[in-house]
Amino acid sequence: MSERAPAIVIIGSGFAGLGMAIGLKKAGFHDFVILEKSEALGGTWHDNTYPGCACDVPSHMYSFSFELNPGWSRMFAPQPEIRSYMERTADKHRVREHIRFGAAVESMEYDDAAKRWNVTLAGGTVLTPKAIVSGIGALHIPAYPDLPGIERFQGTTFHSAEWNHDYDLTGKRVAVIGTGASAIQFVPQIAKEVEHLALFQRTPPWIQPKPDRKFPAPVRAAFEKVPGAARAFRDGIYWALEARAVGFTIDPRLSGPMEWLARRHIRRQIADPELRAKVTPDYTVGCKRVLLSNDYYPALTRTNVDVETSGVAEVREHSIVTADGREYEVDCIVYGTGFKVTDALAELRVTGRGGVKLQELWADGIEAHRGTTIPGLPNFFMLLGPNTGLGHNSVVFMIEVQIQHVLSCLRLVQESGADAIEPRPEASRRFNDRMHRRLRKAVWNEGGCQSWYLDDKGVNRTLWPGATFEFWAGSRKAKPEEYTLRP
């Protein structure tokens, strides 16, 4: 069943989809629809509702540059406040009227003859836009570990990204698998409620103190009423975060002060030498995501919390047995094991020009031209595509740069009278080869650890290898010589 063809389809209503919609409207493109699989906008900030869920990038930076929010309650806003900001922004710019909720995309196939895309939704509806902007990002498919015997477990299990709020953890014996960004936020919250918490840690993260504090009313008033105050504060945060890229991308030895701060954080919050040893990483800081928390280490010192590092040997009907023979009676297992990052993109069902499938284009690994366009996929754009993630600053900045890139591509099509635009293979190859040469020298490939930044071949397909202003300078505007316009 086909419907009227919108000129542009945006997939997802998180920061990427929302920002793209606003960008289109500002640029005079009003014939578009946003397809959102959930029943509400917000993307990951709608889906993730676990206890303690908050951003680990300062709020004034983790927001749109064109829609500053002087009223952030604190330095690092909690999830409900971020979602409210997104909803207000959508309403202000009248984006909600373009959103179709409960619209999960099954597949996307380019029609060479019609020069349009066939976007098939769950249920069989087909839309036929001229262009697609994927704003789904990579943090939306939960990753689960392969635990021996998990099918026998008789208790309750759920992932942090799909928190079961109907299950009361009070007085329960809980096992938490994983110590990633979500776990260090929810563990301190649930440790106060449960009878016992067994935290299964494979690799300890580097954790620094979180400079989080409430903004007093006079400060919020100043941000709102004093011209340029909020902008200046945001700019200060940007450059402070940007400075961290030096150690990550140029020379890991320059991250010495970061490691010193993290080690001091452990010493100050944990007195027990054995526990200190368990939570101290043995790899270069920055190799895995650096986390922020003031209450995670104190939670681990509670008498009802055990940090288990020997690994899971077996899951039984009501317990977990470790590799060194300990057995923990367990009522509930909570997975804090993150997301399938590279797989989330690689599993997209996309068929391009000439019937080529995305998986064929990515047979040697996922990549895109400037993280946004792919040879063989006309009028197909990705926000938060390969190698646009960050280890040091706000991805909202990267999203805004990509939005400008997409808009410049659409203008090239409009001004030339062409039907389609796609990157030249040789231009995409040059860009990606140059980028990966830089990545091989960065901390993520030399730091001595395995992380979700790397694919199964050990290649970083996730992060940008330099400063964000470099990405802005090179990618905010599409270069005509890097693209083919098809009449």
From TrEMBL:
InterPro entries reported for this sequence: FAD-bind_Monooxygenase_sf (IPR051209), FAD/NAD-bd_sf (IPR036188)
Superkingdom, natural source: Bacteria
Entry-linked Gene3D superfamilies: FAD/NAD(P)-binding domain
Protein name: Cation diffusion facilitator CzcD-associated flavoprotein CzcO
Originating organism: Actinomadura algeriensis
